[in-house]
Amino acid sequence: MIRRPPRSTLSSSSAASDVYKRQINAEYGGIHSQTMGGKGSTLKERAELANKSTTLAIGELDLDSDDLEKALSLCEPSLRSMEASVNKIKRLPALLMQFTNLKQLNLAQNRLSSLPAEVFLRLTALEKLNLDSNLLSDLPDLSPLVKLKELHASNNQIKIFPVVIPPKLQELVLTNNKLIQLPEKDTVWGEATRLVGLDVSDNQIDVLPGSLSQTPALRSLKAANNRLSGIPVEVLRDTKSDHCAGVVGADLWS
Hints:
Layout (H helix, E strand, L loop, with lengths): L14 H13 L3 H4 L8 H11 L1 E3 L7 H9 L7 E3 L20 E3 L10 H6 L5 E3 L19 E3 L18 E3 L12 H5 L6 E3 L20 E3 L10 H6 L5 H5 L6
Parallel strand pairs: 1-2, 2-3, 3-4, 4-5, 5-6, 6-7, 7-8
């Protein structure tokens, strides 16, 4: 799992930024460095490479939303992976919804303030979605993403936790947002049968719901640097989480 350094350390010259870039390369099997070519490569050339490899690697090219739309217009619908992090993208083009074979989508470190729900209605093959370090205040309906396994949306301004957790989601990371609370309903957590890791550190949460104990596969619950006074006893008693007490570092509720 990629651990993004704080936004303040992500300058192009910082050691933290270099480490993060190496992590991105490892996560995407080296496509970021192997298929991008020199900086003078055109979007057309990137699209031609994508049509051969099914991977569109356009990260760190200073692209805006129109550039993204142009690149997508040159790609075949068979595209399976898109790495478009560290750009200046403010909106996602409707054209993206045509790429229904996408399994990996990395949009980290852009300028997205909202996500069109209609696009994600069609991207039902997604398995990994990275939205770290944007300007998002909420997330779209995640229920269509029935194959999603990993969702990263740290370093945004998200205030509301998703009301639906995709059934195959294993890892959900929402650190450094503006979350105030987690859902109370048992059904939200009980239906998250594959969720192994939940990280909501660095938010404004003052209470962890006891219904978290209904998450059957939860192994790692991280909620450091919130406003918690403790962890509900039922969460510790009924979940299999190995890390929740030590990470939160709070007294248990009776």
